[in-house]
Amino acid sequence: MKISDLIMMSVRSLWRRKLRTFLTILGVVIGASSIILMLSLGIAMDSNFKEQLAGMQSLTIVEVYPNNWDDPKAPKLNDKAVETISKLPGVQMVVPKRSLQAYLRFGKYATSWQVEIRGLSAQEMEALGYKVEQGRLFTDQDKNSILLGQELCREFVKAGQEINWRNPPPPMEFKVGEDVLKLDVGRYTGDTNEPQTDSQGNRVEVPKQPKVTVSGMFGPEDWENSYSAVIPLEIFNKLKEDQERYNKQLYGEENNRNQDDNQYGNLRVKVIDEDSVISVQEAINEAGYRASSPMEYLNEMKKASNSIQIMLGGIGAISLVVAAIGITNTMMMSIYERTKEIGVMKVIGAKLTDIKKMFLVEALVIGALGGTVGVLFSYLLSYALNKFGPQVAGEMFAMLGSGGSNVSIIPPWLALAALLFSTVIGLISGYFPARRAMGLSALSAIKTE
């Protein structure tokens, strides 16, 4: 018997019992959509974990700190450490943290206290994935530029005054590409705003205040740079030298000495891809430093998420098992109702394999059709969850430590796997009834009323 004839006979048989066929297919639809939606919640949780961490920090960045607290003989963070770590496999660039504290001055306004000023090159900013909301990042040709954090703009008051936190001033609005600020590393007394004197009471001349143009503003979501400013490396090094010379004159060389001999507070290691992050981190730890990265937290989150996915997938699989029982029951009922038809087919010479295939095709059609409708229904429900249910589902994800834009994510592989699984379940469910149909006696079947 041709396969096309088998399919047509199976479809006609299912169509004669529309209600029962519909209810059986509905069971498969519910089972397939349940398992898809349950797994999609776990996949969305994974994606939201990753999105949340990537929003805080690049997933390919490893933070390196000195390990002198645990081991006084541990290697220091200096230029030699930068050179050593740069040679590790998988490392793209090592960026030392260069920072100092200084006032920002804008006309008669200034920051109420010294803020963090960091020095970076254009290549280092590109490697770290820096972006600005207004203006642009400075290039190697920009020698006197500055990038400002959003929250930093709220700290400007008239020089010598302090911020009234009960009634804070509005953020200073800078014209990107036009406004010029001054960098002041001087120390001042709180009550008179006069430069501090050294231990003998002698006035120490405040270094010259270099001028920089505001070239860009970091966005409000950039928490790392919200309260700091970034300047080109060349002007930073000059400002650092001025500050060290000034502090030596003000406090004395002995009091200004770095006690732990670490040249840098920490290093940021840019790794070539996410798959290499953990291996690079382990290599840095083995070298005697203390390293951490978002990927290790992401891996821990994934372990917890995988456990939740297994639980949710198990719940959905139960519905599909129930649907498989429904398919088996439907096919068994079909055999009892068509016993005489089966007997006639055997008498006129139909092959046992053709009878078996006919019932298997019916079960397969039920599974495939139910799986297809289940996939489409799942996409519809997923869209509704993402569109209308973020508030309710968002609270659940917040309790699990996640946050993101999607409640449910159905990747193509999941839809395809669910469709294939539903079809196979239908085929398996129809195997026992098909075997039973093959085993019926032709004469007994014909006599059945």
Keywords:
single chain, 449 residues, alpha+beta, four-stranded antiparallel beta sheet, membrane, transmembrane transporter activity, transmembrane helix, ABC3_permease_C, cell membrane
What does this protein structure show overall?
- The radius of gyration is 35 Å and the shape is elongated.
- Mean pLDDT is 81; it is low at 397-402.
- By secondary structure, it is α+β, with helices and mostly antiparallel strands.
- Helix content is 51%, strand content 14%.
- The protein is built from 13 helices and 13 strands.
- It has helices at residues 3-16, 18-56, 79-86, 122-128, 233-251, 277-286, 294-337, 339-347, 352-388, 390-399, 412-429, 431-439, 442-447, and strands at residues 61-65, 91-96, 99-106, 109-111, 115-120, 134-135, 145-148, 156-158, 180-184, 211-217, 228-232, 267-271, 290-292.
- The protein has a six-stranded mixed beta barrel.
- It starts with a helix and ends with a helix.
- The chain folds into two domains: 3-56 and 298-447, no CATH class; 98-263, no CATH class.
Question: How would the blueprint of this fold be written?
Answer:
Blueprint: H1 3-16, H2 18-56, E1 61-65, H3 79-86, E2 91-96, E3 99-106, E4 109-111, E5 115-120, H4 122-128, E6 134-135, E7 145-148, E8 156-158, E9 180-184, E10 211-217, E11 228-232, H5 233-251, E12 267-271, H6 277-286, E13 290-292, H7 294-337, H8 339-347, H9 352-388, H10 390-399, H11 412-429, H12 431-439, H13 442-447
Parallel strand pairs: 5-11, 7-10
Antiparallel strand pairs: 1-12, 1-13, 2-12, 3-4, 3-5, 3-9, 4-8, 6-10, 7-11, 9-10
Helix pairs in contact: 1-9, 2-7, 2-9, 2-11, 7-11, 7-12, 9-11, 9-12
